[in-house]
Design a protein that fits this description.
7-stranded mixed sheet; 4-stranded antiparallel sheet
């Protein structure tokens, strides 16, 4: 079992920045690929970014490439999402998801953190 807790959300003006954190407890953190997803009101949850277990690779949705950066600190069991040049369309609840590398059917979600970008 892995518990995930997101933090760092809030209200920011367009063009501003926020850094989200996803703190994990439980199993060996480095055995999990970590993803960020987001869900805007009335819309489906969509992929934002992912990072491999050793930070060797990262992937981003086209809508956030060049503005968002995902990183992780396995020693602190934490993944970060640095969000720059925020736009109103980035407004959503942001969730992290831990995906077990040895069994794709095993994954865990955090409770989410709200990000609101005003125009």
């Amino acid at each position: 079992q892995v518990q995930l807790v997101e933090s760092g959300g809030g209200l920011v003006q367009a063009g501003g920045s926020l850094r989200l954190s996803c703190a994990a407890s439980g199993r060996t953190f480095s055995n999990y690929i970590i993803n960020w997803f987001r869900q805007a009101p009335g819309k489906e949850r969509t992929f934002v970014a992912s990072i491999s277990r050793n930070s060797g690779s990262a992937d981003y949705a086209n809508s956030v490439k060049g503005r968002f950066t995902i990183s992780r600190d396995n020693a602190k069991n934490t993944v970060f999402l640095q969000m720059n040049s925020l736009k109103p369309e980035d407004t959503a609840v942001y969730y992290c998801k831990a995906h077990y590398i040895l069994n794709p059917s095993v994954y865990y979600w955090g409770q989410g953190t709200q990000v609101t970008v005003s125009s």
